Every structure is written in structure tokens, then in C-alpha cells.
């Protein structure tokens, strides 16, 4: 029997994010791990104690000293390896992770001036009061501090490359077939513009929170201290955490804001997926060359001439995984039976892999783009081999002249179709056709001067819209 890896120390990672790709996604551990969840719970619980006493929500209790506030805030700040182990030990006894957080805090108040006030910890709270705020802090921090800077960085890379190549002509391929030329920069600018919109949408999403009791009615609060304005206490506390107060909930905060955020992140990922597939295709066409030093390592195990576009392929796969997880989160979290069921509890624990696979993909695209060189000569050769794409230009001029009353220019589309469809047209063929049309001198000369490489319309100028 082979040795069981499950018994090895340190533990063997089950998922690639915690194994093979650990270094790339490690910054998310501070935000989206189980330990980060418990640290966020500690923040919520200790800040709730401070908020209640500072706002005199419970008559007859003294206010805190600055040292006592510092003592409470040090509890989450000092939560490290020993604290994680201690919380786990307490949870084995409570079989309840939030209750274990409450007991963890109370242990730290023993022997201090706050010990007589220990029962304020978790007072008037259901577990979901703590959890929804903890997850809000975690997810907001992960997106703001880790995911969004990486995303904005790769968008900036694409935009910079678009500006650099705004004037580099390139053959378009609509339906995979040669089509009206464009510039490489304009095509990259389309992606950058789409991604810039998502980069603005994502941080604009509200992050909602609530702290209103077992079924969202402040029942325990009102029966205990009926003269306190508990809605105001709740609202000011949520806003103190830099979150948006949700005034109407069941036992759980409804998670709609999470669904909105994940939908935007999934959409951003799908646009990036399109970037990865298009750049991969441009590499295969020779429009981009890959620098081996930038891509790293062996290109192929058996074919030494190859530099494989592995960064973009890796990104494709991870964006597909991330998108699927984000979709599931969006669909599942908005539904809760009656006033509460527990489906959201295990679902939210998968926010980490959803964002982790997205972050990994973003990093791979960034590394892949950094290792590319533009081959303008390859693009020029492709254009030179496809003079038939000027058929659109010629028939458009013929149509314009025809409606203006010029004779002899009937059926322009059909005539160009006969010349170009299914045929390889050379420059000489196209110029001869233009010369025989009987066009006015200005239009004839303009078309005779046209080449596939110069037939790019306003494409170079359009890139400037990235700076609007």
C-alpha cells in the first residue's frame, strides 16, 4: 500500500491554489482565508462593544478609557498563529465558530478592567450579525487591496500596448476570414475600453451590512433597552465599518450586493478571456513574437523550437473556473428559505477560490503581455497578400458616385463580388479594375493610391478615446 499523503506534516494541499499556485495568490490569504474570517469576526465583535459603550446604548454603563479601547482593538490585531490554534481548540468544544470567537474575546478580558463588562461581547447579536459584516469587510478588502490593483494593472498594460500600436496596420478577420483592415492598437483599445468600464463599475458596488438581531426586527434589543434608538445604533455601527447599512433584512443580510459584485467580476473575466484567446490567435498568426526569457522555462518537452503561449492558455482555463464559481455564488446567495437557511454559509467559503482563480489568470495575462514583441512586418505581409479586402472601399465609392448621378457605375457590389469572392486578388488586379471603371479623376486617384495597409479609416485616431 502506498503511503497516505493525508497523514503528512505539513499538510499536503488539496487544491492548486494552495499548492502549485500558492505564491501567486498568497495575498488573498489575509482577506479570504478561514483565519481571515475569524479575524474579521473579532473586529466586528470588539468594535460592537466599543460602539455600544461609546454611544451609551445601554444606560448605566460607563464609557471606555483609551487604554480599554486599545486593549479591545489589539485582540484582532494580535490574532496570529497562536490565536488561530486557540480558536480552533475552543471551536472543538463549542462546535460553533462564532461562539468560539465570543469565548476567545472573553478570555482576553479576564483579569483586566473590562472583565466585569465581558457579557457585552456578542450582546443582542445573532451569528449572522457578525458573519455578514465580517464577510463584507473581507470581500471589500480582497477586491480593493488585491484583486482590483492587479486587474487595473493588466488593463493599463493593454491600453499602453494599444497606444504604442495605434498606427500599426493589421488585417481584420471577421468570421475568421480576411476583412477590412484595422490597426493592432485599435483592436487592443476595444478590449481596454471594455475593461476600463468594468474597472469603474466594480469599486462602485455598494458593500452592505446589517446588525439587527435574529430575524431583523431588533427584538432582543428593544425588549432589553426599549428607549434606545436601535436603528440609529445599527446604522451608525455599519457605517463606522465603512459599509452601507441595509435597513431591511431577515436573519441574514440578503447578499444581493455580493451577487452584483460577482456578476461584474465574472463579466470582467470573460472580457479578459476574449483578450487571451485573441492574443493567442495573433501569436499563432505571427503578429506577436514571444520572448522565451519572459515566458520562462521550456517551451516544449520534445520540440525545442517552440515557445508555447502558455500564459494565455493558463489564463483561459482559470477564468473559466473563476467565472463558473462567481456565477454559482451570484445565483445561490440571493436565495434563502424563509427567514434563514444555512446554504450561504458554505457557499461564501468559496469566495476565495472564485477570486483566487481570477487573480491567477490576471497575473498570467500580465506576464504573457510583458513577453510579447509586435511583428509589424508579418502583419504587413498578411495585408499585402489580401488585396481583395479593398473591394469594400471600391464598391462604396462606386455607390456614392452612383447616387450622386454618375453613370456607368451600376451594380457595384455585384461587380466587386465577381472580381474578389473566392479569388486571390493582387495589387495589379485591383488597380486594373479601378482604372477601367471610368471614375472621376479625384476618386480614381484616391483609390489607386489605396493599399490594404493604408485602408484603416480612423482606426489610429480612435485609440485616443482611451483617454476620454
Automatic annotation (TrEMBL):
Lineage of origin: Bacteria, Bacillati, Actinomycetota, Actinomycetes, Micrococcales
EC number of the protein: 4.3.2.2
Primary role: Catalyzes two reactions in de novo purine nucleotide biosynthesis. Catalyzes the breakdown of 5-aminoimidazole- (N-succinylocarboxamide) ribotide (SAICAR or 2-[5-amino-1-(5-phospho-beta-D-ribosyl)imidazole-4-carboxamido]succinate) to 5-aminoimidazole-4-carboxamide ribotide (AICAR or 5-amino-1-(5-phospho-beta-D-ribosyl)imidazole-4-carboxamide) and fumarate, and of adenylosuccinate (ADS or N(6)-(1,2-dicarboxyethyl)-AMP) to adenosine monophosphate (AMP) and fumarate.
GO MF, any single term: lyase activity
Record-linked PANTHER family: ADENYLOSUCCINATE LYASE
Name of the molecule in the record: Adenylosuccinate lyase
Domain Adenylosuccinate lyase PurB C-terminal: 336-456
TM spans (from-to): none
InterPro entries: Fumarase/histidase_N, Fumarate_lyase_CS, Fumarate_lyase_fam, Fumarate_lyase_N, L-Aspartase-like, PurB_bact, PurB_C
Amino acid at each position: 500500500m502506498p503511503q497516505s499523503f493525508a497523514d503528512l506534516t505539513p499538510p499536503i494541499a488539496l487544491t492548486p491554489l494552495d499548492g502549485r499556485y500558492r505564491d501567486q495568490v498568497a495575498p488573498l490569504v489575509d482577506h479570504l482565508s478561514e483565519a481571515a474570517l475569524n479575524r474579521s469576526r473579532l473586529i466586528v465583535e470588539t468594535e460592537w462593544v466599543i460602539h455600544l459603550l461609546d454611544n451609551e446604548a445601554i444606560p448605566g454603563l460607563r464609557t471606555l478609557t483609551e487604554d480599554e479601547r486599545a486593549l479591545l482593538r489589539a485582540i484582532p490585531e494580535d490574532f496570529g498563529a497562536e490565536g488561530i490554534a486557540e480558536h480552533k481548540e475552543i471551536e472543538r468544544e463549542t462546535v460553533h465558530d462564532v461562539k468560539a470567537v465570543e469565548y476567545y474575546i472573553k478570555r482576553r478580558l479576564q483579569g483586566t478592567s473590562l472583565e466585569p463588562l465581558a457579557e457585552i461581547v456578542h450582546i443582542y447579536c445573532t451569528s449572522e450579525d457578525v458573519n455578514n459584516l465580517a464577510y463584507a469587510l473581507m470581500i471589500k478588502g480582497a477586491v480593493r487591496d488585491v484583486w482590483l490593483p492587479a486587474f487595473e494593472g493588466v488593463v493599463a498594460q493593454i491600453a499602453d500596448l494599444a497606444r504604442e500600436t495605434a498606427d500599426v496596420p493589421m488585417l481584420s478577420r471577421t468570421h475568421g476570414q480576411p476583412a477590412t483592415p484595422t490597426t493592432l492598437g485599435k483592436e487592443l483599445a476595444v478590449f481596454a475600453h471594455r475593461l476600463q468600464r468594468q474597472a469603474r463599475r466594480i469599486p462602485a458596488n455598494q458593500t452592505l451590512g446589517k446588525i439587527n438581531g435574529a430575524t431583523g426586527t431588533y427584538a432582543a434589543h428593544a425588549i432589553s433597552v426599549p428607549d434606545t434608538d436601535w436603528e440609529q445604533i445599527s446604522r451608525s455601527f455599519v457605517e463606522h465599518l465603512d459599509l452601507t447599512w441595509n435597513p431591511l433584512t431577515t436573519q441574514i443580510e440578503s447578499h444581493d450586493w455580493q451577487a452584483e459584485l460577482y456578476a461584474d467580476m465574472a463579466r470582467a473575466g470573460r472580457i479578459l478571456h476574449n483578450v487571451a484567446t485573441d492574443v493567442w490567435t495573433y501569436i499563432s498568426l505571427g503578429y506577436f513574437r514571444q520572448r522565451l526569457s519572459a515566458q520562462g522555462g521550456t517551451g516544449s518537452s520534445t520540440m525545442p523550437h517552440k515557445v508555447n503561449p502558455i500564459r494565455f492558455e493558463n489564463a483561459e482555463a482559470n477564468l473559466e473556473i473563476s467565472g463558473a464559481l462567481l456565477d454559482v455564488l451570484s445565483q445561490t446567495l440571493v436565495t434563502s428559505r424563509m427567514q434563514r437557511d444555512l446554504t450561504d454559509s458554505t457557499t461564501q467559503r468559496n469566495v476565495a477560490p472564485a477570486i483566487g482563480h481570477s487573480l491567477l489568470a490576471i497575473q498570467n495575462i500580465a506576464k504573457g503581455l510583458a513577453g510579447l514583441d509586435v511583428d509589424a512586418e508579418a502583419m504587413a505581409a498578411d495585408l499585402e497578400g489580401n488585396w481583395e479586402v479593398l473591394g469594400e472601399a471600391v464598391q462604396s465609392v462606386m455607390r456614392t458616385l452612383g447616387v450622386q448621378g454618375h453613370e456607368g457605375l451600376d451594380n457595384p457590389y455585384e461587380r466587386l463580388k465577381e472580381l474578389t469572392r473566392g479569388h486571390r486578388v493582387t495589387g495589379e488586379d485591383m488597380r486594373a479594375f479601378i482604372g477601367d471603371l471610368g471614375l472621376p479623376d479625384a476618386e480614381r486617384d484616391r483609390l489607386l493610391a489605396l493599399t490594404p495597409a493604408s485602408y484603416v479609416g480612423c482606426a489610429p485616431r480612435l485609440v485616443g478615446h482611451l483617454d476620454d
